[in-house]
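Final report, Chapter 2: Outcomes

The project's central promise was a pipeline that accepts a single protein chain and returns its three-dimensional structure in a standardized token representation, suitable for archiving and comparison. That pipeline is now operational. To close this chapter, we reproduce one record exactly as it appears in the project archive, with the input sequence first and the structure output second.
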Amino acid sequence: MLSLTTITSTVLGANCYLVAHDDGTCVVIDPSGGVVGAVREHVERHGLHVAAVLATHGHVDHVLDAAAAVAAFDVPLTVAEADAYRIADPFGTLEPAGSGLVPAIAAAAGIDVDDHRVPERVETFSGVATEMRFGGIDVTCLAAPGHTEGSTLYRVDGVEIDGQERRLVLTGDVLFAGTVGRVDLPGGDAATMQHTLTTVVGALDGDLVVLPGHGPATTIARERTTNPYLTGAARL
């Protein structure tokens, strides 16, 4: 059986998720700003071994602690190949005009930007459906471009939530409760996002629990009936 822990960053409220197996294996998804201390504390308290650090995409609010996580747990950051270029310069690729918004938020949160920018080890996978296994944790990676070129959904089955075994999909900034990710940032594309929502998100089973990059959890079934971007009531 798998367990789930959510740690929400003070930087733009990005969600970092920990999925752990009874065998002690743990996977960290989206090492958001300032979360590594809490992740390390949880891992040590429960005697876990971090086998992988994954990113749903390369935006800075989701990988601000990537370098710290890689150093702390001696594993590479794993990200889709199409978003790998963002890891080397997460601020510049998000804000090429130099508005300074995200660095300002990071500074306000007491985070030293220079200590969190470039992980020493990065591994990539292709945009096609990819299966990964970490101990007893199976992860299915689904390419979901549109918010960024390499945005990825991570499917994980057999996670205990409120005493029930559930199937999860970690959606990053592709799908949220009641809305979807923005497409006006560098690398975003409305037509590509619409294709992702129709063909990738649209193909997911309704019982899947959605764990988004920001905000509360939801389900695919709920979003199909209430999310205006999935019902056709709103357009990107």
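Archive annotation: The radius of gyration is 17 Å.
This record, like all others produced under the grant, will remain available to the consortium after the project formally closes.
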